[in-house]
Amino acid sequence: MLDEYLKASVDPTGGTQRNKQLSHGWSCATDGGSGASAQGIIACTTGKPDGHGGVIGGFAFHTERVR
Predict the structure, then answer these.
(1) Which letter, b or e, does each residue of 38-67 get, where b requires 16 or more Cβ atoms within 10 Å of its Cβ?
(2) Would the CA dihedral through 54, 12, 5, 32 be positive or negative?
(3) What is the pTM of this model?
């Protein structure tokens, strides 16, 4: 899933797209990974949108920042 997200999130202008719909019902997003408060974390989920920015059901995982 992460390989698909990383390949799909590259913008031809050199930036990245933070939110991306992927195959098999997954979507992934990142906090951008830059600036003082950004952690560079990627979070992926399945399920149905709940209308409030979250999802109902499905699975979720996220990466962690290595220090």
Answers:
(1) eeeebebbbeeeeeeeeeeeeeeeeeeeee
(2) negative
(3) 0.63
Question: pLDDT tens for residues 12-58?
Answer: 555 555 678 888 888 888 876 556 666 678 888 888 778 886 778 88
Q: Which residues partner with 55 through β-bridges?
A: 49
State residue 38 phi and psi, 5-degree precision. Answer: -75, 140
Can you read off the two tokens belonging to residue 30? 């990142």
User: Cα–Cα distance between 22 and 5 in angstroms, integer?
Assistant: 7
